Structure prediction request, 878 residues.
Amino acid sequence: MKNFYIKDILPNQNIKLKCWIADKRQLKNNLFLDLYDGSGEIEALASINETENFVQLCKINRESCMEITGLSKKYKDKIEILIKNYEIIANSTLNIFPFPNAKSFNILSPKSSGRLLFHPTFYIRNRLISKILYIKAVFKREMQNYFWNNGFIEFEAPTLTRQTLYEDSGVVWINNKKHIGLSRCATFHLEPALLSFERLFTITNSHSDEKVKTNRHLIEYMHLKAEMTFVTLEELVEFAKNMYYQIAFNTYEKCKKIMNEIVGEEIVKNKLEKLNPKNHKVITYDQAVEILKENNIDFEYGKSLTTKQEKILTKKFNENFVWVKYIPYTVEGFMFKRYEKNKFLTMTADLIAPQGFGEILGCAEKITDYDDVISSMEDKNKMKDFERYKDFAELHKLGLPPHGGIGMGIERALKYLLNLDHVKYIKPFPVVKINQINH
Amino acid sequence: MKNFYIKDILPNQNIKLKCWIADKRQLKNNLFLDLYDGSGEIEALASINETENFVQLCKINRESCMEITGLSKKYKDKIEILIKNYEIIANSTLNIFPFPNAKSFNILSPKSSGRLLFHPTFYIRNRLISKILYIKAVFKREMQNYFWNNGFIEFEAPTLTRQTLYEDSGVVWINNKKHIGLSRCATFHLEPALLSFERLFTITNSHSDEKVKTNRHLIEYMHLKAEMTFVTLEELVEFAKNMYYQIAFNTYEKCKKIMNEIVGEEIVKNKLEKLNPKNHKVITYDQAVEILKENNIDFEYGKSLTTKQEKILTKKFNENFVWVKYIPYTVEGFMFKRYEKNKFLTMTADLIAPQGFGEILGCAEKITDYDDVISSMEDKNKMKDFERYKDFAELHKLGLPPHGGIGMGIERALKYLLNLDHVKYIKPFPVVKINQINH
Prediction:
C-alpha cells in the first residue's frame, strides 16, 4: 500500500513518491513539473546534471504515473522536489487533447465544459474538479455530522418508486405501463418511517428530467431530505437557516486552503457571512409579489418565481438571503399543508440565495388529515392514479402526527458557496440529457 | 418541536409524553399499554380510578398518537408510566389487520413477510423492523467513520450508467435501445476518480434484477464499494477482514441492548468472535474444489459456489469465515486482474460467512494495462458493445496505476450479524419483483 503522500512532505527530506504529472515545461536543460497525488500538488524540478535519464523524462506524457526519488527543498513559501531519479509506473499514451491538467486548459470555460459531459472518465481528474468534489465530500460528511448530532438518523430511501411529488412528466421511468420510475424526492418514504424514528434525514441520488434546461438543474442530483415530527414552519425555517450555515462553516474550516484558492478568501468569507442566520430576511409570497409589482414585473399570481424575479427580491434586501413563505398550492406537492388563513397558500418557505444563485432549499409542514390529503390530491389531479398513492394516503389514517421537512439540492448549495456558474461542475458524472450519457 | 422522549424518562417524574400505542390489553378496570416513540418503548398503566376518561381510552385504536400525562414509577427493573390524563393527537382509524405492532404478530414469520413487501408504508413501523433499520443506520455510520478515519473520502457514484459489470440480462434498464440502466456496481466510476483521490468509498443503492430469487438478494440493495491505489490482493484481504470486524464491533458497542434483544447476547458475541480476523481461514478456489470432491460433490470447475457448497466449506473449517482466493475469470468482472501463475484464475478473493450465510464481500486487484482489458473484454463478449466501455477501457492508457477494490452487500453483512433469514427484513422498502413495487 502507498503510505507516503505529497501532504506528508517536509523540507530537506530524501523522498520517494508515487504521483502523476499534471503539466510540465522545459526550459533548456531544466524541466519544471507540476505533480499531483490523492493528497495534493507539488512542483518539481529535473535537470540534465542532477536527474538520471533526463532526456527520456522530458518525453514522458502528461498524466503518466511515476515514482520519483529526490530531495525536498523549501523555495520561497513552498516546497519543491529536486528529482534525482524516476521510474514509470503507468505511461500515459492516450491521444487526448487538451490534457485534463494542462495549465492552459480552463475546464470552467463554457467551450470546455463538454469535456466533463462527454468524457467524464478522463476529465474527472482535472485538479479543479477534484478539489470541488473533495469539498463536496466534506460538505456531505458535515451534513451527516450535523444531523446525527441533532438526534437524526440517516435513513435509506428507495430509488425505485411509483409515486411522484409533482407531475409525472419529469420522471425518469423504468417502466411506463406500471408507473415505476426513479424517485425525485424521498418524502413518500420518510413520512412512513417517521413513526419509527421521528427525526430522519437521507441523502439520495434523485432524478428529474426537466424539460427546461438551466444552470441549476441536472437529471441526476444529490438531494438532502430531512423530516421531523411535531414541528412548525417557523421552527423548520430556523432549523434550516442554522443547518446550512453550520455545514458551510464547518466545511470551510476543513477546506480553507482550497476554498480560498477556488473562490477567493474575501468572496468566500462574504458568502459565509450572508449565510449567517442573523442576515436572512423572511417575507411572504404576497409581499414578494408586491415587490415585483413595484419593479413593474408582470407576474401571474400562483406561479413560481423565475431566476430573474428571485434576483429582484434579493437585490431589494441588499443581496441577502431571502425566505419566501406561504407559496401557492398550485406549485407545491400535494401533501403540503394549506395555510389556515388562505387555503390557496401552503405552509411552505423557500430559501433564495442572492446574486442569482436562486432557490437552494425549501421547508414545508405536511398534511396530517386523510380528508385533507384526498382533497389535495383532487386539486392536483392525482386521483386518477390513486392506486399508486393509496398506501401513502391511508398512512394519514394511522396515527400520523404533525410533521414537516426540509429539502435541499446539494449541488445548488455548493454552487452558491463555491461561486460557480453551473451545477455540472459539482457532479462527478453529470447528466444534462439522458441520451448523452457516456459513463 | 418535541423535546422530551421515552429515553429521557427517569423514575418518579411527572411526565408529558407524545407517543404511539403499539399494543394494549384490558384486564377489568385496568388497561396495560405498550407505548413507543422515536427513541424507544415503555409500558404504561391506566385504571378506572386514576385515569381521566378511562372508558374512552380503552376504545382507542392501536397505532394512535397521543400525548399522555402521568407519573413514572420504577417497577422491578423497568420504568412504567401511570397515566393520569391523555389527549389524542392523531387517531388510528385504518381498518388494518394485523396491527403492525400487535404482540401476537411476528413479522419475521414466512407467512407475514408479504406485509413488508406489499404494504411497507404501514409495516415499516413494526418495532422489530424499526430496530433492525436503526442498527443498519448505525452500521452505515460506522462504515463512513471507518473509511474517513483511514484516509478515504465518500465519493458519489451515478445511478444511471451505460456499463455493466457482468451480463446485461440482470440490468434494470431505463432505456433499452440506448443501453442506459441502473448501476449494479460503482467500479466503472470509482476507477477514474482514483487518480484524484487514491482512496475512495461509496455506498449506493445498486440494482440487479437476478432471475434466481434467493434469501440473499433484492433488486435494490445497499452496496459498499471501496477502491484504492497501489494495493495487492493480500493487503485487500487483510483490510477487508479488519473493516468488517471493526464496523460490526463498533455497531454492537452502540446498539448492544437492541442487538442482544434481537439476536441473543451469546449468539451475537459468538458471531463477533467469528468475525475477528484471527479466526478467518484463507483457501484457494482449487483447494475449495478439492474439499467439495472429498465430500462427493459433482462440481463443474469454473463455476461459482452454491450456498450448499459454501456451507460444506465453512463446516470443514469449524464454521469459521472462509476466504476463497483466485476465483476463475469465467464468473468475475472483465476488469479483474488475472493470476500470473494461471490465467484462468483472477486476483480475487470472496469472503464466505459460516452456517449458510454465504458470500458477504469480495476483493479484487484490477487490470492496469490496456491490452489486458481489451483481451479480457473479448473473453467476456463485451467487444460487441465496445462503444459503451470505450472511455473506461481507454482510461487504462492514461496513467492508471496498480489498484484494487472491495465490494460488500450491506444487507448480507447485517443478515449474518443479526441472524436473519432474509435480506428483505434489512431494507425499508424491499423489492423482490419489479412489478410488485407498492411504494
In short: The mean pLDDT of chain A is 96.
